[in-house]
Protein: UDP-glucuronate decarboxylase
Amino acid sequence: MATSSSAIRTLDKSGNEITTVGFTRFGFDSEVPIDVLRSLYLRAHYVTTASSSDTKEEHLEEQALHAQFSKGHVAYQSKSIYHPETQSISYTTLSRFPPVKLLAPSKRKRVLVTGGAGFVGSHLVDRLMVLGHEVTVLDNFFTGSKTTVSHWVGHPNFELVRHDVVEPFMIECDQIYHLACPASPPHYQFNAVKTIKTSFMGTLNMLGLAKRTKARFLISSTSEVYGDPEVHPQPEDYWGHVNPIGPRACYDEGKRVAETLAYGFHRQDGVDIRVARIFNTYGPRMNPFDGRVVSNFIVQALRGEDMTVYGDGTQTRSFQYIHDLVDGLIALMNSDETRPVNIGNGDEFTIGEFAELVRDIVENVQREDGEEPRRVNIVYKPMPTDDPQKRRPDTTRAKQVLDWEPRWTVRMGLEEMVRYYKAKMAEGGI
Ligand SMILES: NC(=O)c1ccc[n+]([C@@H]2O[C@H](COP(=O)([O-])OP(=O)(O)OC[C@H]3O[C@@H](n4cnc5c(N)ncnc54)[C@H](O)[C@@H]3O)[C@@H](O)[C@H]2O)c1
Structure:
């Protein structure tokens, strides 16, 4: 039996129900109802938003109107309609967009999101769009996909541009979230030279744009700048322990030099920069085959295959849910903090424990859906080179300067992600 939206009750770390994500910080309101966001990434049979049932009649009326113009071929969505009386032509795409906030022009920001078709970027785009801002996505679709943001294509506040950030790009904007860079090891190691080029030249180009337009610039750096850390948990003042010539160096050193560039532009040219050091993040729209531990485990368990743990399973990781990250990124962007800020969830799990938790949740969701789960095995394989043993953020700075801390428990986030992958699987997407 499919789970209905009313059955999805999400409790935060303090046991309070999560009905909205976001908050007001530094005069910027980032709060939106969780159901609106869910309707963009979870399939309809899991969530029915109030608006979708309320507007059924309206929907039929609109369809009838379009059918009248299109002589019944409603499936062919875009139409050009000639109006002889006014000698004009109108175009329709039949696109329906979720309502977005109507902001006064003085409050509406023109936001550029590079890498906006990727996992993190698309959630940031959803949030900024629902909040009523004007969003331009710049992406070369290397690891991202148009489908992650296709629900906004055609919206007057939205623009999607295919562009590689290693080439310069000109646009007028107020804020730049610079996310473009492959983030998972198989993807960033696929073409190591391109990864370091994207990190260096891409960041150089986008900082140049920020300098010209006086836009505020936020870079999505990473906990990988700490390498295999000798300090635990890692505060922002820790300089890291990175192998500069290993297989992960194209990404780790790429992000380190990207940070260096950001501070160079800040000191020399006064560019207003923000540096987010993001720790492991997971959530819907993560590529199921990108080799990251969360997606690997869920997909294997859903398929009834053995779950693979690399190493002996005692290495620890912390995982943050995507909505917490988006809250943190928006808060940082709108704050005055120019020092690096760790954004991550400090709840630490051994990979072995985590595999068991995922297995448990997958079984629960299968039971909720009236299926009989089959217990899968957890198997151990050798650890890849340079894989850090321990990684946990010290988020004291984020708490102090942004008044931000993670709200989502790992379990709650995983449940949502399992539902998402399960729905994708049912549609043949996995
Ligand atoms: N997801 C995490 O756990 C995590 C952790 C730390 C840092 N980050 C950082 O956050 C950002 C987003 O990560 P993600 O998980 O969404 O990864 P992702 O691979 O899903 O998204 C990256 C996006 O950038 C685009 N891109 C890559 N190279 C490009 C180029 N040269 N020009 C234009 N677009 C390009 C890709 O097509 C994709 O849409 C990355 O900068 C990553 O380093 C992510």
In short: The longest strand covers residues 216-222. Residues 56-92 form one domain. The pocket of nicotinamide-adenine-dinucleotide is lined by residues 115, 117-121, 139-144, 164-166, 179-183, 198, 202, 220, 222, 278, 280-281 (CB under 6 Å). The chain has twelve helices and 19 strands.
